[in-house]
Amino acid sequence: MHKIETDIIIIGAGPVGLFAVFEAGLLKLRCHLIDVLPQAGGQLTEIYPKKPIYDIPGYPSVLAGDLVQNLLQQIAPFQPGFSLRQSAESIEKQEDGRWLVTTNRGVQHLAPVIFIAGGLGCFEPRKPPIANITDFEDHGIDYFVRDPEVYRNKKIVIAGGGDSALDWTIFLADVASELTLIHRRTEFRGALDSVEKMTDLHEKGRIKLVTNAQVTGLNGGTHLESIVVEHDTEGTSNIEADYFIPLFGLTPKLGPIANWGLQIDKGAIEVNTFDYATNIEGIFAIGDVNTYPGKLKLILCGFHEATLACQSAFKIVNPGKKLSFKYTTVTGIEGIAS
Questions:
Q1: Residue 120 pLDDT grade (very low, low, confident, very high; cuts 50, 70, 90)
Q2: How far apart are CA 287 and CA 52, in angstroms?
Q3: Residue 258 CB: number of other CB atoms within 10 A?
Q4: Please, which pLDDT band fits residue 328 given cuts at 50, 70 and 90?
Q5: How much is the pLDDT for 1?
Q6: What b/e sequence results for 181-209 when a residue is b if at least 16 CB atoms lie within 10 Å of its CB, and e otherwise?
Q7: For residue 177, which of 157, 203, 163, 204 has the smallest C-alpha distance?
Q8: Which CATH architecture has domain 3-123+250-337?
Q9: Is the whole-model pTM more than 0.85?
Q10: CATH T-level assignment (fold) for domain 127-246
């Protein structure tokens, strides 16, 4: 059977996995990415491509989908390979020290180094306990905002108190005809700046805010028409809604990776902060999939982790060879990639 041979197998083609290709390319290391999704970009492409991101250096604001396209353009000179719509099912150490990774489709990949950049792993939305919620999925219930224009001039209800709920409340305030944010408490878990922006929208009458309450029922025929809200002290009420978007986060699952003998703590892979190596030699974990003291689940932190992991990967791929670090400002990408 034909095997895809490369220097680094990257499991996960999200932003951190894509940037790892760039850093590896600077060191003349070849990469091949495996991802269960049909396109590169991970959550940025699949869940919120139109969501603005504010903490990427050099970009005051960049849409998630645009960031992915920029990353793909950045790594194009290094010609990475992709195995999409596939999940990494098993790994096996070979006699020559390399790793054999086999996907659920039986495709085999061979490399001395594995980067696990699977983000949250296999994920699914946390759904509120509403009896008939599945009846309205794709008919007024959305767990992700993929295209904001779907909600243009519609009555929208968002539930949640974290960053995602706040971010989409702020963004969709200019899209929806009416927007209501419902949260079980008065305190929010999101960034203070986002809480202040949401509060300002509420005070100006541009959105409605309902706290100490939760959605307990859904009404409609072939499409959602209204929601039932249970208040802590005021009984129940109905709110007209074309769309209800519960944003309570994702339930992460490592999938088959959890059975590979890696040290795992609360669903994340433990690594050291020298180079983000795992307890298994030749396997590194970067991005949201890993954990260590002081860990922050930010894209820019994942970029840093990928950079350091590539330095150690070079030594594994090229034992005994001296690493000559080059600045792209001196050589340019064309000079490095050629």
A1: low
A2: 19
A3: 13
A4: low
A5: 59
A6: bbbbeeebebeeebbebbeebbeeeebeb
A7: 157
A8: 3-Layer(bba) Sandwich (3.50)
A9: no
A10: FAD/NAD(P)-binding domain (3.50.50)
